[in-house]
Amino acid sequence: MYRLAGFVAGAYLVVFGVLGLIATASDGFLGEPADRVLGQGVNLLGSIVSLVAGGLVLLGTAVGRNVDVQVDKLVGWGLLVVGSYALATIRTDANFFGYSISTVVVTYLVGLLLITISLYSKVAAPEKAGAPRQVREGRPA
Prior knowledge:
- The protein is mainly alpha-helical and 141 residues long.
- The protein has one domain.
- Helices cover 63% and strands 4% of the residues.
- The chain has five helices and two strands, in the order H-E-E-H-H-H-H.
- The protein has a two-stranded antiparallel ribbon.
- A hairpin with a 2-residue loop joins strand 1 and strand 2.
- The two termini are 30 Å apart.
């Protein structure tokens, strides 16, 4: 179930990135967020960031084997950093991503969702599946 949620979050980021690329293809790389995609302000750089983040999540989900746990964790924290930067610079010239407040909120939500997914989707090796945590980690029980 958690991998499915990770896939949906990654697919949303990819769709948002692709639609943003289409909408902002003629704009400058760091232009003002005049274009809105899925109700969110975005420019070309913000679209590329979303597309890359979503692609990484989808790739990690496809590989599985706990790779998705690490990818979801790193991308989730990365989205929180990007969202915090965008929130701090939202009405300044330093708003390189062209994010609006709605984009910041969605970025926070997707980042927190990915972090939560990374906390619950890790699986143990089959030979250690029923063992207590100490045994799985190689410590005496």
